[in-house]
Amino acid sequence: MESVDSPEAAAQVARDLAEEQQSVIAVSGPTDHITDGERMVLLSNGHPWLTRVTGVGCALGALMAAFAAVVPDAVVAAAAATATLTVASESAAQQARGPGSFAVALLDELSLLQPADLAERVRIT
Predict the structure, then answer these.
(1) What is the chain's mean pLDDT, rounded?
(2) Three-class SS string for 85-104?
(3) 118 pLDDT exceeds 80?
(4) Cα(65)–Cα(72) distance, rounded to whole angstroms?
(5) pLDDT in the model for residue 84
(6) What number of helices (H) and strands (E) belong to the chain?
(7) How far apart are CA 9 and CA 107, in angstroms?
(8) Is 36's pLDDT higher than 90?
(9) What Rg do the C-alpha atoms of the chain give, in angstroms?
(10) pLDDT tens digit sequence for 84-112
(11) Which residues neighbour 41 within 8 Å (Cβ) at sequence distance 6 or greater?
């Protein structure tokens, strides 16, 4: 799949790859898809500026690794990390004037996000 393909178009490929590799695959987009080959979690939070800031994907990977260190279920860990970043991005975008100030606000919002706020705001199916 190409990065220009929609997450929906990549969902079955991700499911097949996750099953084949016995791992968790995450496909980012307006709706993020996270699968282990059997289960599929859809998250619909975020902001378009996430794609305009260098390093956000690497930050998400680091968050996923941190969550995986303390959450035994890899799908839950990946989904929780993704939800944390994308919910924080929505708050950051409300304060920012563009991608530069968004990047700084995103770091602030990640440090301020509380579990109850995350649970209330996450859009998950």
Answers:
(1) 94
(2) HHHHHHHHHHHCCCHHHHHH
(3) yes
(4) 12
(5) 98
(6) 5, 3
(7) 31
(8) yes
(9) 14
(10) 999 999 999 999 999 999 999 999 999 99
(11) 33, 34, 35, 75, 78, 79, 124, 125
Compute the distance between CA of residue 1 and CA of residue 5 in angstroms, rounded to an integer. Answer: 7
Query: Which tokens hold the place of 40?
Result: 């599929």
Per-residue pLDDT, averaged over 109-123, amounts to 97
Instruction: Return the residue matching tokens 């929505």.
Output: 90
CA–CA separation, 66 vs 103, rounded Å?
A: 20
Distance of CA 96 to the CA centre of its chain: 20
What is the assigned CATH class of domain 7-121? alpha beta
Question: Higher model confidence: residue 74 or residue 10?
Answer: 74
Residue with token string 């080959």 = 37
Which among 41, 39, 31 has a CA at the least distance from the CA of 86?
Answer: 31
